[in-house]
Amino acid sequence: MINNNDVVNQLVLKGTTTIGVVFKNGVILASDTRVTMGSYVAHKRGKKIY
Q: Whole-angstrom Cα distance, residue 46 to residue 50?
């Protein structure tokens, strides 16, 4: 049987700052280059949207 606490303890927060702007003639997408997990920098230069 799976304990709910075990599932919660395995959750990892991850992400990056990303923004998208839509305007009349197109869109602009921007993102930072650091791969993070919470306050931990997992990789200083990750592949992002180019």
A: 11
